[in-house]
Amino acid sequence: MPPPAATRSLIPAAARAALSAGNRPVGLPALPRLPPNALQRAARVVVPVDVEIELPSGDTFAAVVRDLSTTGLFVVTDHALEIGAVVRLELRLPGTNVLSQASHHASAKIVRRADTGYGMLMLEPSRELVAAIDAIAQR
Q: Residue 101: CA atoms inside 13 Å, Cβ hemisphere, count?
């Protein structure tokens, strides 16, 4: 007899097991080297994270985080951003379950530009955001 509808999953058991195994997704790039003048304040982890960026003008756009740490992140975007500008971020980090997301807000200062995007320094990230990033790094 099949399980009751409330306990059935649309995701096959083998796929659920693979998704929840915590393995690094195939195809993620290795961390690039920091520029010679950059100061690494915290360990970076490569993880694609959706981010909504709010500019000082109030305009918003979606982008993807390439890597992040408890102090900063690198956002892949072709939008032109001003070095030194402060933006608001809504980061959608993986939750405690790999199939869930948790939304976190932070302010960040744009500190460097690269060919594929911008490095940002988070300004006073919340304890919850720092804990969520630490949890991702430990996986």
A: 10
